[in-house]
Amino acid sequence: MQRRSFLTGSVALAVLSLTATARAATRDEAAAKVLSSWYRLALELVRHTATMTPPVASRALALLGVGAYEALVPDGRGLVTLAGQLNGLTTLPDRAPGQGYDTAVVLNGALETLVAALFSNTGPTGQRAMAAMTAKMAEQAAEGVAADVVAASRSVGAGLGAALLDWAATDGGAVIANQGFPMSWAPKGTPGEWVPTSKIALQQAPLLPDWGRNRPFAMPALTDMVALPCGIADPTPYSEDPGSAFHTEALEVYDTAKALTQDQTHIARFWSDDAMLTWTPPGHWVAILLQVAEERGLDLTARVEALARMGIGQADAFIACWAAKYRFNTVRPITYIQKVIDKAWTPLLNTPPFPEYPSGHSVQSAAGARVLTALFGPDYAFADQSPTPDGVPPRSFASFQAAADEAGISRLYGGIHFRPAIVEGAKLGACVGGFAVNLRTRA
Hints:
Elements: H1 2-48, H2 54-72, H3 103-118, H4 124-142, H5 147-168, H6 245-258, H7 262-270, H8 280-296, H9 300-328, H10 333-341, H11 360-376, E1 382-383, E2 396-397, H12 400-413, H13 419-437
Antiparallel strand pairs: 1-2
């Protein structure tokens, strides 16, 4: 009889254990839906928000990544908080002991809070989409969860989001006035310096000239725009003399543009990732990560870990890139070529309104590839499923590095950059991405 009771108790314990495991898996599934839904909306809000230029978008996506990650840290998953590792982030709110919390509801509270603040100035369509998502996710995340647990979890998630927003409020990128363009600006008159390339009135000043002074996430803080954390060569000395190195670089852009193949044209347009038309370059690399996470069947813990690393790497890449851009303040190919080589020349793509060196595409793509390679290996082949411009077929790559290399050279094909900006930008991005890779995320 005693043996029978013992066996009965063992079976009961086993059933309870299996039930708890099944419930945890179900709640992780709910949390995964919350995560993917808010990220899909965030990428669309990037496309529909005027201030979401690539640097600003990278900051928003980084904060979402950190928020999603930190929402899971107290869950006993073996994750290590980024507080104390990220610049200026010393502590985050504690959870009340003895209170039950639900992962999906906590995560939803954090992401809802962050998205509402980071995209607060989006247009009417975006506002309606955020309101609809808020209602939908609140209902779905709370389904089957006790009311007291929902209330406590939602409060904890919202508190985490608010704490991260308080931290971000002092990083230099919280306020974007005049869509990021200075109200007044005048060129210095130095030969070879950047000058406006657009006829749009707003773009007669350079975009976000102080972004390089922002507090980085994981890379060492910059004391000024000269002290880059990773080495980058000076750009080629400016010269209008035929046969000079600078003139030769400009001729390469000019000659390439005149003889573009169909594939080169597709490459340039595929990677253009223009603001207000696409998810922008950082959004493109986040989308690649989300795609690969689905392909590999990453669990919830691994997904938030990967999204945090990618967001941080992209944000720091733009800070480092912008610091270099405004340190060197280099003229764009269109300006030089029209002045020195062919006044009627126009590039395939529109030239962005900020200095040339180094290439932002190269820096951030190399950083993204560094993160993805660390996560999934150097030989992960994939077909990029991101939306493509009309008439441009999807592209496939043998590795993340191959995709980054193509993103970089696309700017030469588009007439946007000289080759050294691409080569040196890739070196800078790979180095900056290393800081995100080296974060300690597991106990």
